[in-house]
Amino acid sequence: MLFKKNSIHLFIIITLLISCFHNASASPETIDIIDYVIENKSIIAPLGGLTGAPGSGRALVRNQNKGNCLSCHQLPIPEDDFHGNIGPSLYTVGLRFNAAQLRIRMADMKLINPLTIMPGYYRSPDSINRIAPQYEGSTILSAQEIEDIVSYLMTLKKESSTNSQRPPAKPEA
Ligand code: HEC
Fold first, then answer.
1. pLDDT tens digits, one per residue of 50-70
2. Residues contacting ligand 1 via CB (< 6 Å)
3. I need a surface site. Which of 12, 79, 102, 123 has the fewest CB within 10 A?
């Protein structure tokens, strides 16, 4: 009788152990984020080696479900009425920064200014606290979308004639 009881216990323990190991070996949720190397406050290599398309970048910055950049920035996009002024004007951003400096700002502005309110568009979901449910397990924008926006921003080199916004931040040395 004693033997039988022990063997039942042993059976339960082994079953539990197997299920533990089984769970541990199950692959975790994969997160589609390409690692990037930060050097001199820049990300020199295009994410995933991808090439950006400025036309797509322009559409993404206007799109309220994508960049929604106009809610905080002024951009040379006359079709849209509302241009916010929470962030600096981006009219001449292509003169003030190179692609590598823009890429780090687009990927994760917190790497430049930890207190910024600008969203981290290519920030690892692991490091985001209160993430909206639709972005759980992913970045806000894809690597291709970041490259598209960087290539669009690089074309912005002309001051606005009617710039009512506060002056842009000084570029970093
Ligand atoms: C919620 C507001 C907000 C949104 C949305 C936002 N930004 Fe920003 N952005 C800021 C603020 C504020 C700054 C000023 C820098 C800081 O906070 O450190 C900034 C700075 C920048 C800079 C650096 C400009 C400079 O002169 O230093 C770039 C480039 C930029 N944003 C691009 C974008 C683009 C492109 C988008 C959309 C994909 C975007 N931002 C969306 C708030 C925002």
1. 999 999 999 999 999 999 999
2. 61, 67-69, 71-73, 86-88, 90, 93, 96, 102, 105, 109, 113, 116-119, 121, 149, 153, 168-169
3. 79
